């Protein structure tokens, strides 16, 4: 009797920002599909907790804003498992703030994680993949990368940069069989979003639930986006690269 294999059976996957939220959910989804998952986060203890819940998980602490730390993450994965097949550049931060109130240090705190960190992860992972026959990279963008939004100008600008960066990387690494795509989820029920809700409500003067109901019907769950993360990493998507996939339950589809 044969045992059913998952779509990512024995693939080696690295996920940044995976101690909670979308990253942790993707780690669990990849684990269920048979992948060997390296859980990475600046929160080393959180990464360890997630990794312990996986069948073949391990954790490596990483600060994605530090070039040496990102390189050590990829090098450590290759040293332990021989290669990197999948990389999800997911680490991100955000705090609602009007541009007029934002200083340069606050701007850079968000963009260094959300854009610089994606660049460093993509570059290190793509080079490692190119040396071993290829792989799939996913950059975590957002629907905010397509439209401006009050209070998250730094976050939205970084996510727009991630979308374009993934397209450029897809073109440059295509000859090495390295695919690069962007995922662009809407507002999900994560700690990052819930922490921002009071600030949004105070500034906009309407309940956040009302905005969600009008624009996307209901609050998204991490389980709404993990199937796409599996698909983009799988062989089913092997011929496509350089795309940005929106998962927003219709948010961008209409003006009102």
TrEMBL record:
Residues 11-190 form the Ketoreductase domain. It comes from the Bacteria. InterPro entries: KR_dom, NAD(P)-bd_dom_sf, Sc_DH/Rdtase_CS, SDR_fam. Belongs to the short-chain dehydrogenases/reductases (SDR) family. This is SDR family oxidoreductase.
């Amino acid at each position: 009797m044969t045992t059913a294999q998952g779509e990512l059976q024995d693939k080696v996957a690295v996920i940044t920002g995976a101690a909670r939220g979308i990253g942790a959910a993707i780690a669990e989804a990849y684990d269920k599909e048979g992948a060997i998952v390296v859980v990475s986060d600046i929160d080393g203890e959180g990464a360890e907790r997630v990794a312990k819940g996986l069948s073949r998980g391990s954790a490596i602490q990483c600060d994605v804003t530090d070039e040496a730390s990102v390189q050590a993450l990829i090098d450590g994965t290759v040293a332990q498992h021989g290669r990197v097949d999948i990389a999800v550049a997911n680490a991100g931060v955000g705090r609602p703030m009007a541009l007029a109130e934002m200083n340069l240090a606050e701007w850079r705190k968000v963009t260094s994680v959300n854009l610089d960190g994606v660049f460093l992860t993509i570059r290190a992972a793509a080079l490692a993949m190119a040396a071993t026959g290829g792989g799939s990279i996913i950059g975590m963008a957002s629907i905010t990368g397509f439209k401006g939004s009050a209070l998250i100008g730094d976050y939205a600008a970084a996510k727009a940069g991630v979308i374009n960066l993934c397209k450029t990387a897809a073109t440059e690494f295509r000859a090495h069989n390295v695919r690069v795509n962007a995922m662009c989820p809407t507002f999900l029920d994560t700690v990052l979003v819930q922490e921002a809700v009071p600030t949004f409500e105070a500034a906009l003067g309407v309940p956040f639930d009302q905005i969600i109901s009008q624009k996307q019907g209901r609050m998204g769950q991490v389980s709404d986006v993990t199937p796409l993360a599996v698909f983009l990493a799988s062989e089913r998507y092997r011929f496509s690269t350089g795309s940005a996939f929106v998962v927003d339950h219709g948010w961008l589809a209409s003006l009102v």
